[in-house]
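cache lookup: miss for this entity combination. No prior model stored, computing from scratch. Input as submitted by user K.M.:
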Amino acid sequence: MIDPTTTDAPVIELRGAGKTYRSGSIEFEALKGIDLAIHAGEYVAIMGPSGSGKSTIMNVLGCLDTLTRGEYRLGGTDVNDLDEVELAEIRNRQIGFVFQGFNLLSSLPAWRNVELPLIYGGVPRHERKLRAEQSLERVGLGDRFDNRPGELSGGQQQRVAVARALVGEPTMILADEPTGNLDSVSTQDVLALFDELHARGRTIVLITHELEVARRAARVVWVRDGEILRDELNEDVAA
Amino acid sequence: MSWLESLRTSWSAVYSHALRSALTVLGILIGIAAVILTVGLGLGTQKDVSAQISSLGSNLLIVAPGSSTDTAGVRGGFGSSSTLTIADAEALASTVNAPDISGVAAEKTTSLSLEANDTNWTTSVTGTTTSWLDVRARTLSTGEFISAEDEETSAAVVVLGSETADELFGTQRVVGQSVVISDKTFQVIGVLDSAGSDSSDNLDDLAIVPFSTAASVLVGGTESAAVSTIYLQAASDGQLSAAYQEAETLLLNLHSITDSTAADFTISSQDALVSTATAVYETLTILLTGVAGLSLLVGGIGVMNIMLVSVSERTREIGLRKALGAPPGAIRRQFLIEAAILGLSGGLLGAILGVTAALVLPGVIGSSIVVSPAAVGLSIGVAIVIGVSFGVYPATRAARLAPIDALRSE
Ligand SMILES: Nc1ncnc2c1ncn2[C@@H]1O[C@H](COP(=O)(O)OP(=O)(O)OP(=O)(O)O)[C@@H](O)[C@H]1O
Ligand SMILES: [Mg+2]
C-alpha cells in the first residue's frame, strides 16, 4: 500500500491554482488560488457545497480545462507546456474521467460508448469489443451491451460512464459524483470497484456529497467558495 | 487513430443520422443532376442544329437569284422570276474555269400536285441533274436516281422523298408505280432516304424529275432555262473560299456585271450558317450552364446549412471525444470523411440520375442530350468541395475548443 504521506513527488500538484470564469463583462472567481498535492495511489474524496468549485477542480485535473492563474503539474510536468496532441494522449492513457452529467453519445449503443477511449488509444477492433464488454460486466451491465443510453435508467447510464472510464486501464480515475444517481446497492457495487482499483495501485479522486461515500477514501478535501477549507486523513481507513 | 478507424467512425455517424444524411445527399444530388442535364441539353441542341444544317450537304455554296442588297431580288432579262439559268450552272461545272468546284446541282422548283391512284398530294417538284444526290449528300432507300440518259431524253421519271412516297402509296411498293404530274404520267424510279427537316424545309417531302423534263414539260415558256437555286460543292473544306471566288467571278462575267456589289445573285455558304448557329447555341449552353451552376450553388448552401447545424449540434460530441483522448487531427479527419462521404455519394448518385435521365429523356422530349464528361467530373468535384469546406471548417473550429467548453455547449 502506498503511504499517502510519502515524500515522493506528487502525480497531481496544483500551485496557487486560480480559475476565473468570464461571461461577457461578468467575472466569477471559481478557484481562489488553491494548493493541492496528490500522490500516486492515493484515494481522495473532494467534498463541499454546491457551487463551491469541485467540478472546476476536477476539470482542471482531467486536463479538460485550463487555469487562469497558478500552475498544474501532472507527473512533474507543467500541463501548460504540453501541446494538444500530448494532452489528448494523457487524457486517453492516464485519465479515466466520469462526468457529472455522464456525457454518453445517444446514438451509440452502450458498448460502443465504452469502446471510445480504446479507439483513440489505437487498440485493435476485436480486442476493443471484448474489453468494452468486460468493462460493462464489471459495473453489472452484462445484459445491456446493445442498449442505447436513451434505453437505460439514470443509474445504468452512470455505470456505463464508469465502465468507459475504466476500460482503458488508466492510472488515474477522476470521478465527478459517480454515485449521485445510484441506489444504495449500485453505490456499494461501484464503491467496491473503486476499492479494488485502489488496492491495485490506481490513483482515485472522486467528488461526492455523501459522507458515507467519502468515508471509503483515505483522504477528504473540503472545498468552499473556491478555497480549500480542510484537507484531512480519514482515520478509519488510514488506521 | 488510423484512417480506417476514422472511416468507420464517420460512416457510423452518417448512418446513425440517416434522415439528415439523406437530405444532404438529396440536395447535392439534385444540383448535380441539374447541371448534367442542362449542360447536356445545351450541347445536344447545338449538336442537333449543326447536324441538321450539315445534312444539307457538306462544303456547300448556295447560289440564289437576286442581289443580297437589292430586296426586290429580280434583275436581268430572263422573264420576271430568275436571273440564274441552266447555262450558269453548266459554266460553273467546267473544271477549267472553276477547278475548286467539284459538283454543281441546279434546281428548278415549283409546287405542283401529284396524283397516284386516287390520292392527290401537293409538293415541291424539283428539276435537277444527276449530281444533285452527291452535292446535297442524299442517299436512296430503294431504286435509282435520275441518270444522264434520263436528262438527255427528258424522260418522264420521278424520284420521291420518303414522306411523299408514303402519302401517295402508303405501304405499297413504290418503285415502278405511276404518278401523274400536270397531266403527264411519270414513272417512279426511286425513293430517297429520310433526312429530316431543316429550319425552312421538309427535306423528305419532294419529287425530283430530270431538269430537262421540268424545263420543257412542267414549266415551259420563257422560264424554261431559269433555275431557282444552284448548289455548288467545293472539292474540300479548304477550297471553299476559292470556290466562292471562282463562282462569283464567273457569274459576274456571264452576267456582264463589273461591280460585284451590283451582282444579281447571292452566294451563301453552309459553313457560315453552321458557325452562326453554333455560336448562338454556345451562348445558350453557357447561359444554361450558368443557371445550372446557380442551382448547384443553392444546393451547396443547403448542404452548408445542414453541415453547420450538424457540427454545432455535435459540439458536445466533439468535446466528449476530445475529453476521451481524441487529438484535434482525429476530429478534423472524422468530419472531413463524413463530409466527403456525403458529398461523394450525392455527387455519384446525381451523376447516375443525370446520365440516366440524359439517356431516357431524348426519347420523350425529342431533343438530344449530350453527356459531357467534363460537366460530370466538375460537378462531382464541386459537390465534394462544398461538402468538405462547409463541413470541415466548423468542425475544425470546434476541434480547437477546450474540451470542457465544447462539452458545455448546448
Ligand atoms: N462556464 C462557467 N461560466 C461561468 N461560471 C461558471 C462556469 N462553470 C462554473 N461556474 C461557476 O463556478 C462555480 C463553481 O462551479 P462548479 O461546477 O465547480 O461547482 P460544483 O462545486 O461542482 O457544484 P455542484 O456540486 O453543484 O456540482 C459556480 O458558482 C458556478 O456557477
Ligand atoms: Mg459539480
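stored under new cache key. The beta strands of chain B are 60-65, 101-116, 119-128, 140-143, 157-160, 178-181, 184-192, 206-210, 229-234, 265-269.
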